[in-house]
Specification:
The complex is a heterodimer of chains A (164) and B (174).
Chain A: H1 3-21, H2 26-40, H3 42-58, H4 64-67, H5 73-86, H6 91-103, H7 108-121, H8 123-132, H9 135-145, H10 148-160
Helix pairs in contact in A: 1-2, 5-7, 5-10, 6-7, 7-10, 8-9
Chain B: H1 2-42, H2 44-60, H3 63-70, H4 75-88, H5 93-105, H6 110-122, H7 128-147, H8 150-162, H9 166-173
Classes of the chains: A mainly alpha (164), B mainly alpha (174).
């Protein structure tokens, strides 16, 4: 069992115990409600994970570092932001990939832009968000966040500068 | 909306499978699909817990409770609490978006929602050890320092500029 599963198991058990102790059947209703949601998005889950599988076998890793090195300036940051948005998958897929790019020579600022852009503006993520909450919310959050990965990269390059 | 999303993702999968076939034949098509399913199986326990939590929250949280803790009236305190909850909640988008949707149904404000989702993306407690291990302390600390203010800042911006949109967003969830 990994750390994430363990961390998630605790609130699940605590909530379930609390619901059960209330003695009004809310533990059963909670279980049913969670199960229904899971079943209804199962096809979507399968598709999403297949996408992750394909991108991780297809993404070209060589040559990318030239475009986002420490001397690539704001253009490099812009490329990093664009690439971050296109990166699908969770941290177990994306962070090893970003770490490879960093070791190959991507600048500190660009790497931070990449992480921030992937974690907050990822298009696959936006699809999930639109699916669960609606396009209106996604549009508001996405628009407000848009300048931030670039700004954060610039800030990091200025404060912590250079390569390691 | 669900069918639309499924359709888009289905199209993406077909395109990617085509690209895999062109560059590596059926072997790569299979490798991609198997890799994806393996990842899914890896996170399956996480998924089960997450959906259990989402279901229980939906049943246990009453509108009044959320309005008190994470609602419009509680202002910066609600936003701060949402930032902390977002940082603490583990799992992928299929975990925290159902929870976010449950929060909206129970009466949370737009600022609170934005705080929750943004904190999840830039201050994620569960992802930090992995980030630290893979990218090193210098980069991790630099990233945390430079992104530290994003969740609350974005929450206040969203609340001030588009706060009233929450009614339409909530309506759409029904």
């Amino acid at each position: 069992m990994n750390l994430a599963t363990f961390t998630l198991l605790i609130p699940a058990v605590v909530l379930f115990a609390y619901a059960w102790r209330r003695g009004d059947g809310s533990h059963r209703r909670g279980l049913a409600s969670g199960g229904r949601t899971l079943l209804s998005i199962l096809p979507l889950l399968l598709l999403a994970f297949t996408t992750i599988g394909y991108v991780s076998v297809l993404l070209p890793q060589e040559g990318l570092q030239d475009l986002m090195g420490p001397d690539s300036g704001w253009r490099g940051l812009l490329r990093a932001q664009g690439m971050g948005m296109l990166m699908p998958g969770g941290p177990y897929v994306v962070l090893p990939l970003i770490s490879t790019l960093y070791q190959l020579g991507t600048g500190l600022g660009a790497t931070i832009t990449l992480v921030t852009s992937w974690s907050s503006l990822s298009l696959l993520n936006a699809l999930w968000e639109a699916h669960f909450i609606g396009w209106r919310f996604t549009l508001i959050r996405w628009t407000l966040l848009l300048p931030f990965p670039l700004l954060v990269g610039l800030l990091a390059e200025t404060w912590f500068g250079g390569t390691s | 909306m669900r069918d639309f999303t499924t359709l888009i993702l289905g199209g993406v999968v077909l395109l990617l499978a085509g690209a895999a076939w062109r560059s590596g034949g059926w072997e790569l098509v299979l490798a991609g699909a198997v890799g994806g399913v393996k990842t899914l199986l890896m996170v399956a326990p996480l998924l089960l817990c997450a959906f259990l939590i989402a279901g229980l929250i939906q049943v246990l949280l009453t509108q009044e409770k959320v309005a008190y803790w994470l609602g419009e009236g509680s202002g910066w305190r609600g936003i701060l609490l949402a930032c902390i909850s977002g940082a603490l909640i583990p799992g992928g988008p299929y975990v925290y978006y159902p929870i976010a949707a449950a929060l909206i149904r129970a009466g949370a404000s737009l600022g609170v929602l934005v705080a929750f989702v943004s904190a999840k993306s830039v201050w994620p407690l569960v992802r930090l050890p992995l980030e630290f291990a893979l990218l090193g302390p210098r980069l991790t600390v630099a990233r945390l320092l430079t992104t530290f203010l994003i969740p609350p800042l974005l929450a206040f911006l969203a609340q001030a500029l588009a706060g009233r949109q929450i009614e339409a967003i909530r309506e759409n969830l029904k």
